[in-house]
Design goal:
The chain is of the alpha+beta class and 264 residues long. It folds into two domains: 141 residues, Fructose-1,6-Bisphosphatase, subunit A, domain 1 (Fructose-1,6-Bisphosphatase, Chain A, domain 1), CATH 3.30.540.10; 108 residues, D-Maltodextrin-Binding Protein, domain 2, CATH 3.40.190. It has seven helices and 14 strands. A seven-stranded mixed sheet has the order 3-4-5-6-7-8-9, with helices on both faces. The chain has a five-stranded mixed sheet with strand order 11-10-12-14-13, with helices on both faces. A two-stranded antiparallel ribbon has the order 1-2. Helix 1 runs antiparallel to helix 2 and helix 5 packs parallel to helix 6. It is globular, with a radius of gyration of 17 Å. The structure holds adenosine-2'-monophosphate and calcium ion.
């Protein structure tokens, strides 16, 4: 039976696992074996696979009946999203990892019937830990985090370049130009799960990207919602886990300001 106690125990277990998995990321040696996925911009290393294997093996030992949707799996589109599901991005910010920028995260979400109810995002380089349980708020390094009402004019807008998709380059350039003149400044940090958590913790006033995958946002979307923020696709639809999608996020003011700029 899936109860609050069950979710709290699961949260504690996931936190323990991401911290252990973080050691694999931080201690990675320089001998990276880098493979292309969609194209030469979309990359994976042996460490993405090692972290994913570690998380899947550990979670499935304790929760053998829960399914997995994970970035380095080959079953996207085939996974049954109903019931209990772990959604994993073993290294979000793989390009940052390859280039030793020390700005990547491990993201583990637990979803029930297509909705995240437990979410954890952990940056092993600076030990930033973000988590939430549905209905119980969002926490950043152990403290509750609540979004403020800062306009994009007063804050930084994070964005992603969706650089793996040639057909989105023009759109990305156009949105960048429009947003840049309307906000304090912009940042492209390279890991969507952290970007979205930065909105939840008021480091960014808003964030958007023209195309992301479910494992990029599954955990962070709960963390943002539980902090009082908003996350949808560019058309205002709730995000789902069955497809890649545009993503726009913000607080109760900045979300609408940014979404309007992306619509125009
Ligand atoms: P990754 O580092 O785990 O690959 C940066 O633009 C964001 O897009 C990152 O969170 C990155 O995640 C994600 N990303 C990388 N390749 C992608 C792809 N093919 N489709 C959607 N998102 C992707
Ligand atoms: Ca990844």
């Amino acid at each position: 039976m899936e109860t609050l106690t069950y979710r709290k125990k699961l949260l504690a277990f996931i936190i323990k696992l991401v911290k252990k998995a973080g050691k694999i990321v931080v201690n990675a040696n320089t001998d990276l074996s880098i493979d292309e996925k969609l194209n030469f911009k979309d990359l994976v290393t042996q460490y993405d696979k090692a972290v994913q294997d570690y998380l899947e093996n550990s979670l499935s030992k304790k929760y053998p009946f829960v399914k997995f949707l994970a970035e380095e799996g080959d079953d996207f589109g085939k996974v049954d999203l109903s019931g209990e599901l772990f959604i994993i991005d073993p290294i979000d910010g793989t390009s940052n990892f390859i280039n030793k920028l020390n700005a990547s995260a491990i993201s583990v979400a637990y979803a029930v019937d297509g909705e995240t109810v437990v979410g954890v995002v952990y940056n092993p380089f600076n030990k930033d830990l973000f988590y939430a349980i549905k209905g119980f708020g969002a926490f950043y390094n152990g403290k509750k985090t609540v979004v403020n009402e800062r306009s994009i004019k007063e804050g930084l807008v994070g964005f992603g370049t969706a650089v793996y998709y040639d057909e989105l380059i023009e759109k990305t350039k156009q949105t960048f130009s429009k947003v840049l003149v309307n906000c304090n400044d912009m940042r492209r940090l390279g890991g969507a799960s952290l970007d979205i958590c930065y909105v939840a913790t008021n480091k960014f006033s808003a964030f958007y990207e023209c195309r992301l995958a479910p494992w990029d946002y599954a955990s962070a979307m709960l963390i943002l919602k539980e902090s009082g923020g908003i996350i949808t696709d560019f058309d205002g639809n709730e995000l789902t886990f069955d497809k890649k999608t545009s993503v726009v996020t913000g607080n109760q003011k900045s979300y609408y300001e940014l979404k309007k700029l992306l619509d125009d």
